[in-house]
């Protein structure tokens, strides 16, 4: 398969933006200026970008508590996200949602979700709407290996099959759920195989390889847009930080994260592939790195100096008025 230069540049920029956004948050959280819990996505960038590069603003995604990468990959404004995480009035959700509740309907981002397994029922609802409206759009439910054990997820998967909804379930298997190994917590040891039991196609792909995810997502979206119903993708990946910021990660081997950073880094995998194929040069990628670093610096500076919501806004945006 041959890829256009602009496509490759966009994909790398998205992955680099997610990585730099998360690595910078890891430092900024230590200052005490950012309220609430934060769950970082570093290490899984190829999944979010590989999936969302197959989508448009009119397609929907439902995210997770580890949602920054999904937001950026779907096109949410990076400075608006940083403002939101800092709890500022100009954030994407007026500073009221924070890290775990970023949403942007204009980009088809239905929201991050603090409830494990909370996203699939929402995504299936959006998929049913797409089917009823006959607009050819799809809805994606992101979840981790932990969400694959939730009853709400099973119900959503079964409903999607019964109604042939254009839904795609993406289980990012980073191996640990919160703190419990998937090799222990998933009885069948096979998330994709279990999804097939609901009557849909499911495949495992390499979550450390953008191209593997992109190709798997291509098959799933083609099927959904044709009206053939839902699919499941299980990208096997890793995360470089703990379940949440401050997690001591005592459940991981002493050198595991360092080893994974050295051998499973999806950005390095991408760089090696595109330069070896002569699709892009190291200079091309280095220029993107520098540009993104500047973008993240600007986002942090803007967020630090921005105003919080007014106390008068406390009771607004609480209920929807129909």
The CATH C-level class name:
Alpha Beta
Return the domain count.
Answer: 1
Low-confidence stretches: none
SSE arrangement, N to C: HHEHHHEHEHHEHEHHH
**Can you summarize the main beta sheet?**
5 strands, parallel
Q: What portion of residues is helical?
A: 40-55%
CATH architecture field: 3-Layer(aba) Sandwich
Overall pLDDT score: 95
CATH topology: Rossmann fold
Count of separate DSSP helical elements: 12
- Molecular shape: globular
Class by helix and strand content? alpha/beta
How big is the Rg? 19 Å
Distance between the termini: 49 Å
Identify the strand order in the major beta sheet: 1-2-3-5-4
The overall strand count is 5
Strand content: 5-15%
How does this structure look, described?
The chain is α/β, with parallel strands linked by helices and 322 residues long. It has a single domain (5-304), classed as 3-Layer(aba) Sandwich (Rossmann fold). It has 12 helices and 5 strands. It has helices spanning 5-28, 45-52, 68-73, 78-85, 119-133, 151-163, 182-185, 191-196, 210-225, 256-263, 266-276, 282-305; strands at residues 60-62, 139-144, 167-172, 202-206, 231-236. A 5-stranded parallel β-sheet has the order 1-2-3-5-4, with helices on both faces. Helix 9 links the parallel strand 4 (202-206) and strand 5 (231-236). The N and C termini lie far apart (49 Å).
How is this fold's topology laid out?
Elements: H1 5-28, H2 45-52, E1 60-62, H3 68-73, H4 78-85, H5 119-133, E2 139-144, H6 151-163, E3 167-172, H7 182-185, H8 191-196, E4 202-206, H9 210-225, E5 231-236, H10 256-263, H11 266-276, H12 282-305
Parallel strand pairs: 1-2, 2-3, 3-5, 4-5
Helix pairs in contact: 1-2, 1-11, 1-12, 2-9, 4-12, 5-6
């Amino acid at each position: 398969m041959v890829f256009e230069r602009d496509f490759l540049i966009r994909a790398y920029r998205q992955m680099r933006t997610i990585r730099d956004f998360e690595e910078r948050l890891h430092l900024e959280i230590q200052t005490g200026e950012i309220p609430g819990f934060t769950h970082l996505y570093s290490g899984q960038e190829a999944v979010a970008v590989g999936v969302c590069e197959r989508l448009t603003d009119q397609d929907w995604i439902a995210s997770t508590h580890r949602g920054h990468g999904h937001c950026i990959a779907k096109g949410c404004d990076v400075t608006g996200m940083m403002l939101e995480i800092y709890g500022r009035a100009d954030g994407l959700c007026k500073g009221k949602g924070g890290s775990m509740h970023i949403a942007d309907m204009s980009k088809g981002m239905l929201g991050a979700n603090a409830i494990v397994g909370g996203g699939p029922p929402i995504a299936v609802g959006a998929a049913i709407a797409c089917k009823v409206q006959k607009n050819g759009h799809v809805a994606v439910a992101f979840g981790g290996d932990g969400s694959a054990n939730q009853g709400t997820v099973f119900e959503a998967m079964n409903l999607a099959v019964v109604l042939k909804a254009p839904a795609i379930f993406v289980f990012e298997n980073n191996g640990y759920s919160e703190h419990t190994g998937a090799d222990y917590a998933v009885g069948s040891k096979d998330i994709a195989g279990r999804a097939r039991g609901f009557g849909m196609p499911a495949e495992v792909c390499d979550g450390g390889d953008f191209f593997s995810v992109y190709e798997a997502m291509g098959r799933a979206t083609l099927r959904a847009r044709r009206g053939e119903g839902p699919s499941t993708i299980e990208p096997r990946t890793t995360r470089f930080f703990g379940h949440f910021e401050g997690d001591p990660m005592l459940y991981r081997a002493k050198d595991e994260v360092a080893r994974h950073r050295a051998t499973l880094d999806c950005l390095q995998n991408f760089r090696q592939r595109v330069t070896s194929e002569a699709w892009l040069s190291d200079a091309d990628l280095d220029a993107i790195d520098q540009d993104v670093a500047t973008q993240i610096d600007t986002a942090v500076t803007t967020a630090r100096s921005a105003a919080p919501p007014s106390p008068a806004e406390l009771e607004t945006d609480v209920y929807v008025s129909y």
